[in-house]
Amino acid sequence: MTTPALSLRYQHIEDTRTKLLLNIAVIWHVTLAVILAVGSTFLLVSLADATIPIAGGMRLFMIISSALGAVGSVFAARFIAKRDHRGRMLSLGINYLGFVLCLILDLHILGVYIGLDVLGGTFKYGLPFLLLAFIGYLIGAWGDRYDNDPLRQQTFRKISRVVMIAAGVLWLFAVGLVDGLIALFAQFNGPLPFILTAGIVVFGVMLRGMWRRPSAEAMHAKRQHEEALSGLLFLSPNLFGFLLFFAVPLLFSLLVSFTNSDAVLKRDFIGLENYRQLLNLTVQPLAAPDQAANQVLDIKVFNELARFNLFGQNYVIGAEDKLFWLALRNTLLYCLMAVPFSVIPALLLATLMNSKIPGMHFFRAIYFLPSVAAIVGISLIWQWLYNATIGYVNYFITLFVNFVNQLSGAALADPKIQWLSDSRYALIAIAIMAIWSTIGFNIVLFLAGLQSIPRDLYEAATVDGASPTQQFLKVTIPMLAPTTFFVLVTTTILAMQLFEQVFILTNPLGGPNNSTLSLVVYLYQNGFQRFRQGYASATAWVLFIVIFGLTLFQYRRQRKTGNAYE
Amino acid sequence: MKPKSYKRIRLIRVTLAYVVLTTVALVMLFPFIYMITTSLKEPKDTFNYPPRLLPREGVTTQVAGKSDPLPLYYVQVDGQDKQYALLESNIRIGVYADPNSPDTTYERPSKDVNPTGGYTNQKTVAFNGKDEPLWDIEVDGQVIPMVQVRQTALGRFVNPQNPQEEVLQNVRLSQPVQNVTARPQNYDDVVKLQNMDRSLMNTMLVTILVVLGQLTTSVLGGYAFARLRFPGRDVLFVVYLGTMMIPFVVLITPLYQMMVSVGWVDRLAALILPWLFTAYGTFLMRQAFLTMPKEIEEAALMDGASRWQILLRIFVPATVPALATLATFTFLYAWNSFFWPLVIINTGNEANHVLTLSLNVLRGRASDAPNIILAGAAISIIPPVLLYILAQRFFVESATSSGVKG
Question: Which domain, by its residues, includes A167?
C-alpha cells in the first residue's frame, strides 16, 4: 500500500531542539558504525589469537553482531538524515540493544550478580522492614474501603505510600546498601567499567532523544509504528530471557549432544556417536536357555540385558549401555504404576466430591495440601514412614495382618517389607509416595472439569431414564475428556522425569541394585558425577523424544474418542 | 419409589461418601502430622516400637537422698499400681523354689542369698535329674533350703516420698511414666547444625526476586501479546507455547556450561536470573488481559494516556486474581525447586544453600535422628503451607488455570 507522495513529504515544523537532537543522532550513529566496524574487523583479524579470553562461538557471535550493528547504524544515520521513519526504528532498536548490553555487562563487571550472595547473608536484617512495607500496603488496602469518603481514602493512601517508601529505604540500609555501594565503587578500577557506564548513559540519552513525541513526529512515525515499538519494548525483558536462557541453551543442548563435552576441557564433534552408544542394541539367538552370553555377544561392546523365548527359540538381548535401558525400563514401569493410580482414583474421588454435600471445600483443601510441600521434604518424611522396623507403613500392615488373623483365624505372616532396601519393592515404594502426593492435585483438576459440565446434560439423561452409572459413563467421562487428557499428560510427563524422590530416598543413588535408576537420575549421574555432558545431553534428547511420543500417543487417542462427541 | 426408602438410601450413600472422603483426608494428612510430632520428639523416643505418634518424655522425680532426678516407672505393689522411681538397675535376682513344692517361687537378690552349708561345702539335692545346689532362703522368718530355678536381673524401684518402700521389678518390662511433651529445641538444633536460618534467608531472597521478576516480565509480555500488534507476534506466541512442552532436563547441560562460562556456578545469581522469565506466566497474563474490554483502553488512549500508564493503572489492578495465581505458582516452584540448585551449588558451599539443598545435606548428616531431619523438613514445608492456608483459592486456581478448560 503506497501512501500518496503528498503526505510523505508533509513538512513538520521542527523545533530547534528536535533538530539538534536528530542531528546529534546522525553523528552518533556514524560514530557508532565506525566503532562497531573497527571492533568487528579487529575480532575477525585476531580470530586465531588465543590471548583474548573469549570462546570461539562467542567471538563469532560478537563479530557478526557488531558487523550487523555497524551496517544498521549506517542505515540509521542515512534514514534519520532523510527523516524516514525507518531510521527512527533502527535507531531505537540499536540504541536499546546497546543500552541493555552495556547495562548487563556493567552490572556483571561490577560484580552485582555475584553480590546477590552477600544479600543472602544480610537479608535477615531487612526482614522487619519488609514487614513494615507490607503493613504499609495493608493500610492502603484498608483505606480502599472508604469509597464514600475520598478525603479519608486519600489520607490512608498517603500514609500507606509514606510507610512503604520509608520501609523500602530503611530496608536498603539494613541489608547493607552503604557497604554495597562502597564495594561497587571500589570495582571502578580499569577502563571497562567506565566505558560501560558511559555507554549506558549515551545509549540512554539517545533513546530518550529519539523516543520523545516531537522527535517521533519529526520522523513521520505513524500510530502502528508506535504500537509495534511499544509491543517489542514491553516484550523485550521476556524475550531476552527467553532467548538467552531458553532458546540458546536449547540449541546448544542439541549441539552438545553431538560432542563428547565434559564441560571443562574438551568438546570435540563426534556426530551421532552418543546416540549410537545409547541406543545400541543387538539380539542374538541362543543355542540353549542357559548358554553364556559372551559366546554370542561381543562382550567388549555389549552387556547382557535380558533373555527371552520366542516360538521355542531362545534369544539374548545385548545392549551397549545396559544402564540406559535399565533406566528406561524402570521409568516406564514407574509410570505404569504411578499414573493410572494417580488418575483413576482422582477421577472417582472428584466425582464423589462433586455432589452438593457440605464440606467439600474443606476436603478439597486437605487433598491439595501434599502438592504444596516440596518433594524433598515429602521424601524425607516417607523415608521414615518406610523404615522397616519403626516405620508406620509396616506398623499399619502389622496391625492389619493381626486384625485379619484374629477375625478369620488365618495365620498370615507379617511381611515386614524392607521397603527401600529391597530391590523388588523400592520402585513400588516411590510410586506409592508419588501417588499420594499427586492425587490431590489431580482431584482438584478433575473437580474443575466436572464443574464445567453443563447440568442440563445430566437432567436430560435422567429424563431419558439413565441410571447414575450410565450417566457417569456416557455423560461425565466423555465431557471430561479434555480434562482427563490434560491430567494424564501432565502426570505422565512429571512421572517420566522422576528424579528428586530417587535422589533423596535411595543410597546408593539409583536404589538397591539399580532398581530405582530412572532416566533423569541416569542423566544426572552421567552429566554431573561422571561429567560426560555430551552423553547426558543425548540422553536428555532421547528422553524428550520418548515423552513427546507418549504425549502424541495420548493426544491421538483423545482425538479419536473425543471426535465421536463433537 | 417410596420417599422414605429413597431418603434412607440417600442417607447411606452420603454417609458412605463421607467415610471414604474422611479416610482419604486422613491418609493425606497423616504424613504431615507425623512430621510435626516427630520433629518435637526426644531422640530416644523416635525409635520406639510400636511407633507412637505423640512425642513423649520420661517423667523424672526427686528422691530424698539422691542428687539427680530419677526416672519414674509404673510398678505393681501389693496388687496396686503405683509410680516408683528407678534407683538401681541390673540387680542380679535369683528365682528360688523349694524342691518339694517347686510351683511356688521366691525372688531374692543373689548377693543376699547364702548357700546352704556354706560356700565351701554347699549342699546339693537331686532336682529334675540334676544335682542342684541348695540355697538358704528366708521366708516369713524361716530359712528353707531351695534350688535356684533361674536367674534374672531386676531393678530396684523406690517410693519417691518414702524411699524405704521398695520393690523389685524387671526394668525392661516396666512401663516408664511418660508425659506428652514437646521438644521444640529440635528446631533450634537443626538450625545450628545445618545453618538453616541462612538457607531460609537465601530461599526467601531467591523466591521473592524470582516471583517479582516473573510477575514483571509476564505482565509486560502478556500485555504485549494481548494488546499490541508487532510483526511476528503470533508466530512468536506459538513458539512460546511450544516451549512449555520441553522438559527442563533438556536444557540443564548447556545452562550449566553457560553458568560456568559466566562464573555463576555456586552463586545465588544462577538460581535467580535464568528464572526471571516464564512462558507459562506470559501465557497466563495474556489470557487474563485478553478478557479486558478494548473500549477502556481506547478511551484511555484518546485521553492521552501512555501504554505504560494504561497497563499499570487499568490492566494490572483489574487482573489481580490472575497475578496472585501466577505469584503462588511461581512461589511454589521457586521455594521447592531442587534439581537445578543441586546441580549448580556445590554441596560444600553451605552459605549459598537453599532449603531443599540443606535438607539434602541434613539427610546424610543426621541420618539417625529423624526428629532433627523432620524438624528441618518442617521448616521447609511450613511457610508454603501457611501461605496456602491464607490464599488457598489462588493455589487451586494456579492448578486449574493451566489449561483444564482446553
Answer: 122-175
